[in-house]
Write a structure and sequence with these properties.
Blueprint: E1 21-26, E2 37-41, E3 52-57, E4 63-68, E5 78-82, E6 94-99, E7 105-111, E8 128-129, E9 142-147, E10 150-156, H1 185-189, E11 201-212, E12 219-223, E13 240-244, E14 260-270, E15 273-277, E16 284-288, E17 297-299, H2 305-309, E18 316-318, E19 322-326, H3 330-333, E20 337-340, H4 348-351, H5 452-457
Parallel strand pairs: 7-8, 13-15, 17-18
Antiparallel strand pairs: 1-2, 1-9, 2-5, 3-4, 3-6, 6-7, 9-10, 11-12, 11-14, 12-13, 14-15, 14-16, 19-20
């Protein structure tokens, strides 16, 4: 038997088809959230005085924002309530309630999951999940819209106008290429670290091998048809490059993986990778659909920089055993960093303390022998001349030929000022657990040897 919300005593809020309803929502996009809003659809001239929009937090179910509506609905048939950046929470899940003037709930919608409201006008009501969501990589200017009673995936927002299915592609991009190719992709890439054509406007042709128009890259990878299936080698030009379509979705052409395209744009280098920037949809033409993808380059690591350069932006097929070393950009850009072999690459501070040239401990074994002076500035290493013999218990500093462990050249102080003994360790004590670590200080200039008179009056210990 399947338990329903009604069986559990919790009734979801359903909208009155003849009254105001929530018709469009925007709460999340790539980068800083902008243009967040909730749109209310209602008959023209409808009086919204006393109506409210209440935002609910799915973590605990409590309300966190209430907006009072007022005035009548204009001829457009919608009213838009805007919010500041991050004013509407990003889900997993969260909800929005539309409340009538008498305090009853006209509609309680949730996104990225469902939950039951706790407190406020929707108390005890189970939200209706709209079934679609925005993500951290959703383009700026998109929203979730209810069209013909169904909520749709993110698309260019229509705030201020009633949502309509319309023509899904009123002006489809034609298939066919009419501007001539003047360079091959290999000529644009060149055989060096950077393209020899940086700053030049070129036209190239290739097959789309990866589509990253969403997720932060705003572009596609294009590779020469029939290329690949060769090992990477120094001095061989790559047959693929990245086409940057700018961050404005209006400039993005309708292309898919497997399309054979011609691209016109300026050549540049971006973080060491060659790319062409297309600033208008008309700069990308689709010559044919469903073209065969180029063969993958067999890639064996480790590989020197010149060898990697020859496979830049191309489809590759790693050969051998690899270990996932980093997934920081997996959810952002679909990247996974691999390390050749069965062990993940370790960063230096996993092995040695930060700020140390080859594990430089403080003090280092390469320091000249010295002693700790109670009268010298903290953490300095005076010369032997400033560490006179003060008693029979005193030992002079160990010689440079003795081991570091035996170089405990310090002894109880004989200072007339009553200073306590310095630590009898060749390295300073470790900080307590949980204490912040700081970079070891640089070695202070060696103080000049004091005279015998000074040494007797301001005693040091070694």
């Amino acid at each position: 038997m399947i338990a329903t919300a009604a069986a559990a005593g919790v009734v979801p809020a359903l909208a009155d088809a003849s009254g105001p309803t929530i018709s469009e929502i925007h709460y999340d996009n790539a980068g800083t959230d902008t243009g967040e809003a909730v749109e209310i659809d209602a008959p023209e001239g409808f009086d919204l005085s006393g109506w409210k929009i209440v935002l609910y937090n799915g973590n605990g179910g409590a309300a966190y924002d209430t907006r009072a509506l007022s005035g009548t609905v204009p001829a457009a048939g919608v009213v838009v309530e805007t919010y500041p950046s991050n004013g509407i929470q990003n889900g997993s899940p969260d909800g929005i309630a539309l409340v009538r003037p008498d305090g009853t709930v006209a509609e309680f919608l949730t996104y990225e999951g469902s939950f039951t409201a706790v407190g406020g006008p929707a108390n005890g009501i189970a939200g209706t999940d709209i079934g679609v969501a925005e993500a951290a990589e959703s383009p700026v200017g998109h929203s979730l819209q209810k069209v013909d009673g169904t909520w749709r995936a993110p698309a260019a927002h229509t705030f201020g106008a009633r949502n309509s299915a319309g023509d899904p592609d009123p002006d489809p991009d034609p298939v066919g290429c009419d501007f001539p190719v003047d360079r091959t992709i290999a000529e644009v890439q060149g055989t060096g670290d950077a393209s020899p054509l940086v700053g030049t406007t070129v036209t190239v042709e290739g097959v789309v091998t990866a589509d990253h128009r969403t997720g932060g890259y705003n572009g596609v990878y294009v590779q020469t048809a029939g290329s690949g299936d060769r090992p990477p080698a120094a001095g061989t030009a790559s047959d693929a490059l990245f086409v940057f379509l700018t961050s404005n979705p209006a400039n993005h052409p309708a292309v898919s993986v497997g399309d054979r395209v011609r691209v016109r744009g300026a050549v540049s280098e971006y973080f060491g990778l060659t790319q062409i920037t297309s600033t208008a949809k008309t700069n990308v033409q689709v010559c044919a659909h469903d073209a065969p993808l180029p063969a993958a380059v067999p890639l064996t690591l480790p590989l020197d920089a010149a060898g990697r350069e020859s496979a830049e932006s191309m489809l590759v097929a790693p050969i051998g055993a690899y270990t996932v070393a980093e997934v920081y950009n997996t959810n952002r850009f679909g990247e996974v960093t691999l390390t050749a072999g069965s062990a993940a690459a370790r960063i230096p501070t996993d092995v040695h303390r930060p700020g140390t040239p080859r594990r430089r401990r403080w003090p280092t074994p390469t320091r000249r022998p010295g002693c700790w002076s109670t009268t010298a500035p903290a953490r300095t290493w005076p010369t032997r001349a400033s560490c006179p013999r003060t008693s029979t218990r005193t030992r002079r500093c160990a010689s440079a030929t003795r081991s570091r462990r035996s170089r405990r050249a310090c002894c109880p102080t004989a200072s007339t000022s009553g200073a306590s003994s310095p630590p009898r360790r060749s390295t300073p004590p470790r900080p307590p657990s949980g204490a912040p670590r700081s970079r070891p200080p640089t070695r202070a200039p060696r103080p000049r040897p004091r005279s015998a008179a000074t040494s007797r009056s301001r005693r040091s210990t070694c």
